[in-house]
Amino acid sequence: MSAFDTPGPSGSSGIVSSPLPVATLLDLGRLREFAADLARQLTVTRTRPLSGARAAHLKLITRQLGILADVYQEVADDVHRGETISPSAEWLLDNYHLISSEALSLRRDLPPGYYRRLPRVGDPP
Predict the structure, then answer these.
(1) Contact yes or no for 3/74 (Cβ under 8 A)
(2) Which residue, 14, 72, 110, 119, is most buried by CB atoms nearer than 10 A?
(3) Cβ(3)–Cβ(68) under 8 Å?
């Protein structure tokens, strides 16, 4: 069984009022509605980011990319064993190299001042 075969969390994340089925999130109109609802609930603050925010952000991306690499390897192993995989797992196999390349370009190409110019979201509702 791959990581994509396990059910997701059954509760709300606390930011949205109710969980949305994955198929609903893939519909463009519903995704726009979800994004607009989320944007209305969040506030932008003018506080400056803490020093080291760039390093913390890049560290988080590196950690998440490591998790994604583990899932990628698990799915690839499933394929090599001849197991059937979901469409989303197939998408990951097809696109993992693009995701990892973009994550690496964040570290290489974005200047340190870029993170200081980004708006910051205040405390979530």
Answers:
(1) yes
(2) 72
(3) no
Structure tokens at 41: 């609930």
**For every residue of the chain, which 3-state class applies, written as one string?**
CCHHHCCCCCCCCCCCCCCCCHHHHCCHHHHHHHHHHHHHHCCEECCCCCCCHHHHHHHHHHHHHHHHHHHHHHHHHHHHCCCCCCHHHHHHHHHHHHHHHHHHHHHHHCCCHHHHHCCEECCCC
Token readout for 72 is 């990628």
The bridge status of strand 44-45 relative to strand 120-121 is: antiparallel
> Are 73 and 92 a contacting pair, CB within 8 Å?
no
Give me the count of residues in the chain: 125
What angle, rounded to 10 degrees, do the helices at 87-109 and 53-80 form?
A: 150
Decide: 40 and 124 in contact? Cβ < 8 Å.
Answer: no
24-68 confidence digits (pLDDT tens): 556 788 888 888 998 888 888 877 666 677 778 888 888 999 999
